[in-house]
């Protein structure tokens, strides 16, 4: 972070690129397909927030996402069935379903429309 901007440096075989993203008040940094970063979305939801300003480094943008609690459910894991809460994260027409346990850990993340799904493989990982 550099004052009111977040600087992202991307290195690849094609070269290096730097991007600057304005940091919104109370904003959160989250990459779309990095499941563990949704932990911070869940934490902000548990703190009472229903809307978040999110910095997206891949598109150099700041978006607003809506958080809506869904019906709790039970998931089958390798270690047995666990009770989880669910959260819908909506960004315009795009949405993610986030299942999290009683400790606020993301157990499953899914964006069905884009064919993305990530799951925690054990309660100790």
Record the strand order, biggest sheet. 3-4-5-6-7-8-9
Low-pLDDT parts are none
How much helicity do the residues have?
Answer: under 10%
**Cα-atom radius of gyration:** 16 Å
Q: Structural class given helices, strands, pairing? A: mainly beta
- Report the portion of residues in β strands: over 45%
- Give the distance, in angstroms, between the N- and C-terminal Cα atoms: 29 Å
Order of helices and strands, N to C? EEEHEEEEEE
User: Overall pLDDT, averaged?
Assistant: 86
- Count of helical stretches: 1
The largest sheet, given as strand count, sense and whether it forms a barrel, is: 7 strands, mixed
Assign an overall shape.
globular
Number of strands: 9
Describe this structure in words.
This protein is mostly beta strands and 125 residues long. Helix content is 7%, strand content 56%. The protein has one helix and nine strands; from the N terminus they run βββαββββββ. It has one helix at 38-46; strands at 5-12, 15-22, 28-29, 51-56, 61-77, 80-91, 94-100, 106-111, 116-119. The chain has a seven-stranded mixed β-sheet with strand order 3-4-5-6-7-8-9, with helices on one face. A two-stranded antiparallel sheet has the order 1-2. The model has no long low-confidence stretch (mean pLDDT 86).
């Amino acid at each position: 972070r550099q004052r009111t901007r977040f600087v992202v440096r991307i290195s690849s075989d094609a070269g290096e690129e730097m991007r600057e993203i304005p940091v919104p008040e109370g904003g959160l940094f989250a990459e779309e397909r990095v499941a563990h970063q949704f932990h911070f979305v869940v934490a902000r939801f548990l703190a009472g927030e229903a809307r978040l300003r999110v910095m997206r480094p891949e598109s150099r943008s700041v978006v607003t996402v809506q958080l809506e609690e869904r019906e709790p459910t039970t998931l089958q894991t390798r270690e047995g069935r666990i009770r989880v809460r669910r959260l819908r994260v909506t960004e315009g027409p795009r949405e993610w379903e986030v299942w999290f346990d009683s400790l606020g850990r993301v157990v499953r993340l899914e964006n069905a429309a884009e064919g993305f799904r990530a799951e925690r493989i054990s309660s100790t990982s």
